[in-house]
Amino acid sequence: MSHESDSNNQVSSPSSITKTAAVRPAARTRAPRAPDGRTNGEDSQGTPPCNTVPLKYNPDKSKLLRFGVDSLYLSYPGVMSDDCDKKLARLKELAQMEDDLSQSIAQVTICEHLFEVRDKGAGRFSYVLVDNAYRIQASNSRSKSLPLAYVQISSEYLTHAGIEKSEEALRHIINTLGVVNEPANVSRVDLFADFCADCEMDAFEPLRDCVTRVETMSLHYSYGRFSGWSFGSGGDIVARLYDKTLEVEKKSHKFYLHELWKAAGWDGTSQIWRMEFEAKRNALVSLQLPKLAHLLPNQAALWRYLTENWLRLTVPTESDSNRARWNNHPLWDFIAAAFDSEGEQAKLQRFNPARLPEDERLFVHGLGGITSFMASRGIEDLGEGVGEYLHQAKEYHVRRSDFKHDGMERYVGRKVKAKNRRYNTVNNVQPLPSDLTKTEAAAVVYQQSKDGENGND
Asked: What's the rounded Cα separation, in Å, for the pair 177 and 149?
């Protein structure tokens, strides 16, 4: 891996980002190529001895499937209102209590989003609110140095709604927390391109073939096979090229991507690779992209900068010690042009702000208790097993609850409410009559948390 700079993750001058948007790279980074990867003028029978032979690559079989923003982290300068601070502080205290029912009402509804209020803050932020669309870290009303909120917009929600609509809805939420002093800052953005290519990725030699600005590079192997490379881990810019089909199958389980890839022409079996760049705040400020309003029209420019100035996959020229003059590998030209594509991309049609468990967890792992019970009692018929399980479970919980006849109902009710909060599915706090005083309302909320038998498992 060659280096164009001695400093880790160094960012060039801010003007480079706007130049990259309109101008193709200079001759030192790109030379005219024939479809088979040879520079025009090379003998079709061989390659000049000064060049390393490029790996077999068929550009006709390369297909761009998706590109855009996968992760977006925004911060909103401002101050939380006293009323909101007090409300969130009370909910955080409930989340910290030992009994399930008190914890279960640590929820808040803001702009039709039902958030779980966590029992702990994050770093110097006092509060954490979470659903499937947003993870909001909020400061308290006394904070002088922190922004009002630091927010991660989920990848799934971005895939459904896009950046503008996701941020518009988020802005309304943040405005209910307090006074927002200025538009959103971008704390981090991850740009990506998903593609298929007729090329053996693990045949490249990054130490030799990659021209980059960073000092660190890692090769990754997962589940017994090569899964990708990463460059600049821990720096202001990080690059990752990895097997996205493997990552979806084994880790993220974002199977909704399969339908989006198929809509773009994926055959359902070919390996899909993701090229991803993570740009943090310092790099974005250096590139004069501090605000979301600056980033939105310059996504293609940022991608060009990252794929032309920060990292390149090249065909080494052994006779030229100046690696900056080495030509791009044709695969890299294909990747670098991803954001030049025009046309509407398929979006995720349905989105649920609730964080629901996967069916496998419910209907495979969830049957573990019943199958264990059936085996322990020598029962093989499923209908008999389920019926006997419920009968014996009810008797057990009557004994466990000091012989209350509804012991199992109380236990299940507590657990369902706890999971309502965790999954963002049902608001456990019943609406209060509008004519109650604050003292009366507090007493009712307390009684709701104590309604039924308190306690954990």
From this structure: 9
